[in-house]
From TrEMBL:
<comment type="function">
    <text>Removes the formyl group from the N-terminal Met of newly synthesized proteins.</text>
</comment>
<keyword id="KW-0479">Metal-binding</keyword>
<dbReference type="InterPro" id="IPR036821">
    <property type="entry name" value="Peptide_deformylase_sf"/>
</dbReference>
<keyword id="KW-0648">Protein biosynthesis</keyword>
<keyword id="KW-0378">Hydrolase</keyword>
<dbReference type="GO" id="GO:0006412">
    <property type="term" value="P:translation"/>
</dbReference>
<comment type="similarity">
    <text>Belongs to the polypeptide deformylase family.</text>
</comment>
<keyword id="KW-0934">Plastid</keyword>
<dbReference type="Pfam" id="PF01327">
    <property type="entry name" value="Pep_deformylase"/>
</dbReference>
<dbReference type="GO" id="GO:0042586">
    <property type="term" value="F:peptide deformylase activity"/>
</dbReference>
<protein>
    <recommendedName>
        <fullName>Peptide deformylase</fullName>
        <ecNumber>3.5.1.88</ecNumber>
    </recommendedName>
</protein>
<dbReference type="InterPro" id="IPR023635">
    <property type="entry name" value="Peptide_deformylase"/>
</dbReference>
<keyword id="KW-0150">Chloroplast</keyword>
<dbReference type="GO" id="GO:0046872">
    <property type="term" value="F:metal ion binding"/>
</dbReference>
<keyword id="KW-0809">Transit peptide</keyword>
<feature type="region of interest" description="Disordered">
    <location>
        <begin position="38"/>
        <end position="57"/>
    </location>
</feature>
<dbReference type="GO" id="GO:0009507">
    <property type="term" value="C:chloroplast"/>
</dbReference>
Length: 173
């Protein structure tokens, strides 16, 4: 049996055995396993320096910090715990690539749709902007809000606003 030695992160030598097994795989016998177990139990102090790799992070599927897909934000209960306006999704988000669903006119007065509209108005004013579509905040519905105030029109050159026949209007939903 042939044995090779390699340095570990703590500069200990690990024997690497070549086994004449039928699968011809390398078998690595780790001498650090007992030390790693003791470290988890708190017996060994953590290494002082020389770490090449950061410690491995463990992820849990039950963690509330896992980001949900954009289109789930509007369909599942609470969007954000902070209570502020929803964030505008980034370019490339899947909700921006899928067709938005129509909203039944009978549902426009429902509490759910009105909450979505209120969130859209808050996000539009926070951005700031003159309009916002529901998919831009992660909700795949055909809803838009528009508001072009004198303040916003004042930023554009006079010739441009005259050529566009741009006039201020209040909030449209």
């Amino acid at each position: 049996m042939e044995s090779l030695h390699r340095a570990s992160l703590q500069l200990r030598l690990l024997p690497l055995s070549l086994s004449p097994a039928p699968s011809r795989t390398l078998v690595l016998r780790t001498l650090l396993e007992p030390a790693a177990r003791r470290r988890r139990l708190g017996a060994d102090p953590p290494p002082k320096s020389g770490l090449i790799f950061p410690p491995r992070r463990r992820y849990s599927n039950s963690s509330p910090s896992i980001a949900r897909a954009g289109w789930l934000l509007g369909l599942a209960g609470d969007k954000k715990k902070s209570g502020g306006p929803p964030d505008i999704v980034k370019a490339g988000d899947p909700v921006l690539h899928e067709p938005a669903r129509e909203v039944d006119p009978a549902d426009v007065g429902s509490e759910r749709i009105q909450k979505i509209i209120d969130d859209m108005v808050a996000a539009m004013r926070k951005a700031p902007g003159v309009g916002l579509a529901a998919p831009q905040i992660g909700i795949p519905l055909r809803i838009i809000v528009l508001e072009d105030t004198k303040e916003y029109i004042g930023y554009a050159p006079k010739e441009e606003t005259k050529a566009q026949d741009r006039r201020p209007f209040d909030l449209l939903c």
